[in-house]
């Protein structure tokens, strides 16, 4: 039986304009915002090494079995951690890669 896929996504962006939302959308994807900040826990501004303000966004995304997203790119560094299930990412001419739940 297919399992839902739960991933934690961290984005580092110069600016992040996408609105935060919680709940289900029409594509079997549910997002729960965890953090959205431009400062450290000590209140220091985040910066890219070459300058410019940075912003960190973290969310838990849950995808229903068989869910597909539209072809898209992330214009910022992205880190995802699979909490449950697995997800296959198609990198076009660079092939596909499947990421699975981390083992402890």
Helix percent reads under 10%
Report the mean per-residue pLDDT as an integer.
Answer: 76
Give the number of DSSP strands: 7
Main-sheet strand order equals 2-3-4-1-5
Radius of gyration: 15 Å
What ranges have pLDDT less than 50 throughout 5 or more consecutive residues?
12-24
Oligomer: single chain
Q: Note the run of SSEs as H and E.
A: EEEEEEE
Helix and strand content put the structural class at: mainly beta
> Given the C-alpha coordinates, what overall shape results?
globular
Question: Can you give a write-up of this model?
Answer:
With 104 residues, the protein is mainly β. The protein has one domain. Helix content is 0%, strand content 44%. It contains no helices and seven strands. The protein has strands at 5-13, 23-24, 29-37, 55-63, 78-84, 86-90, 96-100. The strands form two sheets. Strands 2-3-4-1-5 form a five-stranded antiparallel beta sheet, with no helix packed on it. The protein has a two-stranded antiparallel sheet with strand order 6-7. The chain is globular. The protein starts with a strand and ends with a strand. Mean pLDDT is 76; it is low at 12-24.
